[in-house]
Amino acid sequence: MSSLFSFPGGDAGATPIRREPNAMVDLTGLTCPGPILGAKEILGGLKDGQVLLLLSDCAGTRDDLFAWARQTGNEVLYTESREDGATAYYLRRCPRGHRRRARVPAAQALGSMAPRAMKDK
Questions:
Q1: Going by C-beta distance under 8 Å and a sequence separation of 6 or more, which residues neighbour residue 55?
Q2: Domain-by-domain residue ranges, the chain?
Q3: What CATH homologous superfamily does 18-120 map to?
Q4: According to the model, what pLDDT value does residue 20 have?
Q5: For the chain, which terminus, N or C, has the lower number of CB atoms within 10 Å?
Q6: CB-hemisphere CA count at 13 Å for 23?
Q7: Range in 62-71, 94-103, 104-113 with the lowest mean pLDDT
Q8: Average pLDDT, stretch 13-19?
């Protein structure tokens, strides 16, 4: 599995060199859950260990993305604020064997916020 960062001469104390991500999606202008849904769709098409660069300016993306990564076993490798107000999130698709299922079904997690149709079923 390749890393997003490499260290010159193998020296972990050296300044890391960032590699290019395998895919990039710019979802600036979308509000949540748009950035998470976009990341899920594109990351799902990548191979294990590959990296997605997600750009988002939605204030809720950070918390949602870290929670989603904990539930799925995918990794948020690095975040970076950009001059244009967006945040760059570098996400690595986890190996299939490391995936965890969410402990709480989505409808239960939403509780009273769930649409009525979901609660009645």
A1: 24, 25, 26, 27, 28, 82, 86, 87, 88, 89
A2: 18-120
A3: TusA-like domain (3.30.110.40)
A4: 86
A5: C
A6: 19
A7: 104-113
A8: 54
Residue 27 CB-density burial (10 A; 0-12 exposed, 13-18 middle, 19+ buried)? buried
Single-letter amino acid code for the residue at 92: R
Q: Give residue-wise pLDDT tens across range 69-93.
A: 999 999 999 899 999 999 999 999 9
pLDDT higher than threshold 70 for residue 111: no
One-letter identity of residue 66: F
